Amino acid sequence: MSGVEPVAALTTKRLQLRPPVASDATAITAILNDFEISKWVSPVPFPYTRADALEFIANVREKGSAIWAILNADRLVGMIGRDPQLGFWLDPRCWGQGLMREAAQAVLAAYFKDPNAAPVPTSYMIGNTRSAALLHSLGFSRLVGVVAIKSCAREALVDARQMVLTPEQWHAVNPIEIATPRMHLRPLRPADATDLARIAGNDRVAPMMASVASPWPEVDVLRWIEQRRWRGRVGFSFGVYVPDGTLIGSVGLGGTPVSTAYFLDQHYWGRGLMTEAMMAFLPWAFARFALTEVTADHFADNPASGRILHKLGFVKTGSALGGSAARPVKAPTVSYRLRRADLVSAAGRV
Length: 350
Description:
Elements: E1 10-11, E2 15-18, H1 25-32, H2 35-38, H3 50-63, E3 67-72, E4 75-82, E5 86-90, H4 99-112, E6 120-125, H5 129-138, E7 141-151, E8 156-165, H6 167-173, E9 178-179, E10 184-187, H7 193-200, H8 218-227, E11 236-241, E12 247-254, E13 259-264, H9 273-289, E14 293-299, H10 303-312, E15 315-322, E16 331-339, H11 340-346
Antiparallel strand pairs: 1-2, 2-3, 3-4, 4-5, 6-8, 7-8, 9-10, 10-11, 11-12, 12-13, 14-16, 15-16
């Protein structure tokens, strides 16, 4: 028996994804013994036998390959893998229902949660328009040129188009959104630049930030947004929006050690909105990046920010002098730290 651990099962709205098991052999054989399927799946022979299915299942188990059987209403309807290329096939009776897209979204979302995830390669045989359309919809982009790959079912070399999905492409197509009772948080966009310049460039907000000038030229705001674009790893800022889509502030995470910062439109001060936003943002960030602690600071003449940090569970760790693009000289700052356990206990106090 192999000591390799199987991949984790995944669940979507309509599907269950789990490693294939020996009892799947009959269903796999029935689907892949259709030339209209096997001709598009490079390693699959035709005819396809139960012995082929059992050998495939045994190899997956032995190697711990990232391959999942796709079940819909407890019936096996397809297979998907990322080992390392993304590959898949689906029972023709299930075509046109969006099931493979749903399965692929689950597999890729689980993979790209790792901030160090590498690009995912794949390919499709020329003429397989269904696979081509699916891959484009998932965010894959074409690589230059066509390559020849072996089709076992056709017993021939066939032309294939290579594609790749980078972490940045994935996160651009699948942006994060964090909801609170009164707001939602999502990646900033260039279209937010005008509002962001007005909010953060305010002469009462900018002096409380390190890198924001007052006024804040829109060209600098666009550069700031690009530098803090969501790429699936630490080093980003999200916008904070009320239900009608109005931008009212920003929260972010970056640096070494990892620190958080935020600001809010002056017209929304005093309503507990930033505390609410951060109470949603920080648990998400701790979980997403497996953080053990987050640091923060504020200028000493901004006690309101200190009160927010205290409510969130941050503890004071020291003081220093800090600079701001909106201040002529350095000014006193207060430093804080939040450990994961302190965040949990803070939830009961807010």
